[in-house]
Amino acid sequence: MIHCEKGLFTLHTKHTTYQMKADPHGVLLHTYYGPRVENCDLSYRIRYVDRGFSPVPEEAGEDRTFSLDVLPQEYSAAGMGDFRLPSLDLELPDGSRSADLRFKSFRVEPGKYALEGLPAFRGEEDETLVVVLEDAAAKVEVELYYGVLEDCDIITRAVRLHNRGGQAVKIRQAASLCLDFQRGDLDLITFDGRHVQERSPSRGPLLPGVRSADSVRGGSSHQHNPFVILCDHDAGEDHGLCYGAMLLYSGNFQAAAERSQFESIRLTLGIHPWHFCWTLAPGECFTTPEAALCCSKQGFSVLSHRLHRAIRERLLRDPWTGQSRPILINNWEATMFDFDAERLVNIAESAASLGMELFVMDDGWFGRRNSDLAGLGDWTVNEEKLPGGLDALVPRIQALGMKFGLWIEPEMVNEDSELYRAHPDWVLQAPGRMVRSRQQLALDFSRKEVRDHIYSALKAVLSSAEISYVKWDVNRSLAAVWSAALSPDRQGEVYHRYVLGLYDMLERMRRDFPHMLIEGCCGGGGRFDAGMLYYTPQIWCSDNTDAMDRLRIQYGTSFCYPVCTMGAHVSAVPNAQTGRSVSMETRGVAAMHGTFGYEMDPAQVTPEEREVILRQTAFFKEHQALLHQGDYYRLSDPFQNNPDTAWEQVSPDRREALVSVVSGPIQGGPPCRNLRLKGLDPELRYQVNGQGSYPGSALMEAGWPLPLPWGDYQSWQFYLTAL
Ligand code: DGJ
Question: Which of 633, 35, 38 lies closest to 297, judged by CA?
Answer without folding.
Answer: 35
